[in-house]
């Protein structure tokens, strides 16, 4: 672009427009957080340049010291936050200050559904990065020059749908963000107010934040300071800055490890599940520093994907500074680091799980499904992971560990029983559970999609095998039963056999077999997968994923003590029943009923309705 290039005008992306409408009209009382956001961006910009300069020293003009400075012009009613970081060129400005930034902002909009449109508390919860400046400013201008480039640019906007970019001049690389404060935001022109805000929210920033001659923050990397000198508020603010998070940390782990490979970790477990937890990339968000120099926040190989909920930093002086990010990722030291960190995190989680089970339950609800991926992927640590897994069960409403389950196991019970389904509340009401409940045999209720997968890999715990109650024979006879005597009516074996034969003949290929069941008490029928066949939920999941075309026929189990079955068996035993239309219809209806209780549709809705009508008319 030539020197005479003039001002260009652009429209904000629709989402940014929406966001700005909300932000600008905000009466949110915590507006001061705009300063935290601007200082945070300035700090990120310094980190980025320091990293780039590792491989291109010419980017640092005359060995500059990184700093963030705040200038107040009371007369002009402006507040400026400047940094000498990486800066932005024309394209960067278009990419970042006109569209929605990847983090923070899009969360915020997603959370703002119609119901809570006016709930500006959300601004505080999510932070909205750069755009939060419009809470206090009627105009924002950004003067910036990218390190290593000559042209400087002036970006300006009143936050009403459009922004402009024009060439300008700037001494040195970096960015200055100038806010023309709104009439009701003059408080941010007072030194004392600004100092207080910086100490509250930005003390942890590792570059000096200057107001005139004064340095307002501690200006040293927080993780290098002794834990006893750091307040929990400071930890929280650092967590929010480094993790682009806006909640409180649920767990803070700050350790220094000395040895062949020395490092410091300051890791956090969030108290709210981050929005991108289940994105297919399964990205880590922990920042890697080498000797206090920021390297990347997207290190593959620093932590396993099943710990991707962690936030914070890891800093090691023993990794090489002078290699590319890609080479660093294949450094064997990095995998040592990973092992050390993983064990520490699992150890800390175990402590929490034993000492504060209720608190741990909150963690488990957020991240249990993610952690369980480790059962499949991390063979060496399976035992350790299994130890800290918690499950819903039929025992009570609390979560249980496997060890606790095994302690409660009944005489004669040699399996850990479970049922898997997609909906926790539905499986808790499944007919398959009836017989187990009646006998007081505990069943784990598993409803995360990862459950089917780890159960393919882990077959036992403390010598007890895992067994699905929707597959195979029910074993319930073997288990000691306190109230054995209350025997219910059962049909004559001969009568039941006849009924079974008749149902089999009528249903044909639709089922694999028909058998009497012990697992039912209240429901007349249920469907199970045969021993050795695939569990029903897994089959359903694979079919949905397109990895499986056909369903395996299942076994229809009949409750021999149920009134319907008793009556049908009686009827079946009468000679010459083969042409009995009612029995034929009943066979199909029983299958459909079992399907419906699994959350499936009847095999043929019209036939179902015809049969139901026919059978009801006879009954009436
Ligand atoms: P986030 O910091 O979460 O990415 P922001 O809305 O705070 O979101 O900032 C958006 C983007 O604008 C940043 O990611 C960065 O690329 C760019 N940016 C903002 N401030 C600066 C700055 N002072 N120097 C360089 N780039 C900046
Ligand atoms: Mg930001």
Write structural notes for this entry.
By secondary structure, this protein is α+β, with helices and mostly antiparallel strands. The strands form four sheets. It has a nine-stranded mixed sheet with strand order 1-6-5-4-7-3-2-8-9, with helices on one face. Strands 10-11-14-12-13 form a five-stranded mixed sheet, sandwiched between helices. A five-stranded mixed sheet has the order 15-17-16-19-18. A hairpin with a 4-residue loop joins strand 5 and strand 6.
Tag the structure with descriptive keywords:
Heat Shock Protein 90, 5-stranded mixed β-sheet, 620 residues, binds magnesium ion, Rossmann fold, binds adenosine-5'-diphosphate, 22 strands, single chain, 36% helix, Ribosomal Protein S5, domain 2, alpha+beta, elongated
Short structural summary:
With 620 residues, this protein is of the alpha+beta class. It is built from 21 helices and 22 strands. It is elongated and about 105 Å long.
Q: How far is the N terminus from the C terminus?
A: 88 Å
Largest sheet: 9 strands, mixed
**Based on DSSP secondary structure assignment, what is the total number of beta strands?**
22
The helix content, as a percent range, equals 25-40%
CATH topology of the largest domain: Rossmann fold
Strand order of the largest sheet: 1-6-5-4-7-3-2-8-9
Instruction: Give the uncertain stretches in residue-range form.
Output: none
CATH class of the largest domain: Alpha Beta
- The CATH architecture term of the largest domain is 3-Layer(aba) Sandwich
Morphology call = elongated
Number of separate domains: 3
Strand content: 15-25%
Mean pLDDT score, rounded? 89
